Amino acid sequence: MLIQALTANAVDVGAIGDAPLVFAQGGGSPIKAIAGIQTDGTTTAVVVAKASSIQSVSDLKGKRIATLRSQTGHYLTLAALHAAGLKYDDVEFVFIPPAAAKLALQTGAVDAWATWGPYISSAKIVDGAREIVNGGKLMSGLSYVVATDNALRDKRENILTYLRSYRVAHQWMLKHPDSYATVWAEEVGLPLPVARDVIKGMVGEVVPLTDAVIAKQQLVSDFMSETRLVPRSLNAHAIIDSSFTF
Q1: pLDDT digit string (tens) for 221-246?
Q2: Band of the pLDDT at 70, cuts 50, 70, 90?
Q3: Which of 10, 155, 171, 185 is most buried, with most CB under 10 Å away?
Q4: How many CA atoms lie within 13 A of 41 on its CB side?
Q5: What is the pTM assigned to this prediction?
Q6: Residue 21 CB coordination number (10 Å)
Q7: Ramachandran region of residue 91, left (φ > 0), alpha (ψ -120 to 50) or beta?
C-alpha cells in the first residue's frame, strides 16, 4: 500500500485520504501532507447487493460489513452508525481487500461493502449494487498530497514543481471530464462508464493547507481516536506542512 511505500522511502510523493493520513500519523510514518484535494465526499460509500433487504444504515444492525481497516470506508461506516444512533459493535466488520470484498458481497458472505472510488462505481454500474449511504454529509471530502520527510528535506524544489503541475492537471480534468475519463479508463482498465462516474465525485480544487483545512482534518483525527481507530489523540498540525504555496 502507498503508506507503506512512503514509509519505506520507496516513493517520494503520493495522494491519500483523510482517514489514512490519521492512520499514518498514528503509526509514526515519516510523511507530511503538503496540499489538500477537496471533493464532495460522495466517492466513499456503503453498498449492498441489489436484492438485499437492507435499505438504510439502521438495517445494518447485526450485519457483516466488508472494508479495509482504518481506511475511508471503515471511517464512513463508523460515522454512519454514530449518526443513526447505533453502537459500533452493532455490526461485524470483515477486514478484507477490495477484490475479496467484491466477491464476498456477490456471494452473500457479507451483507455490505464500505469502500471508495472506482470500487463503488463498479459495484453499482457493473454489479447492480445499491448505495445506502455515502460520505457527502459525514466526511470531510479531503484527500491529501503527501511527501516523505526525506523528500521534503532533499527535493523541496522538485516537489513544488510537482505540486504546481498537479494542480494544473487537476484543473484540466475538471474542465475536460470526458477526455480524462477516456484516458484514465484505458490506463487502469476500467469500463468507461465507471471512470465517468468516479470523476463526477472529484469536484473541487487542489488547495494549500490553510487553518480551515487543518481544522477539518483535526475533526477526522478526533473521531478516529474516539472510536479507537487510532490508540491516542493526535494533533493534525504535526503531520501537515503548510509552507507550500502554489
Answers
A1: 999 999 888 889 999 999 999 999 87
A2: confident
A3: 185
A4: 16
A5: 0.90
A6: 27
A7: beta
The architecture that CATH gives domain 44-134 is: 3-Layer(aba) Sandwich (3.40)
**What is the Cα–Cα distance from 142 to 210, expressed in whole angstroms?**
13
The domain 2-41+140-167+203-239: what is its CATH number?
3.40.190.10
Q: Alpha-carbon Rg of the chain, whole angstroms?
A: 18
Q: How far apart are CA 51 and CA 62, in angstroms?
A: 18
Look at residue 25 in the predicted model and tell me its pLDDT. Answer: 95
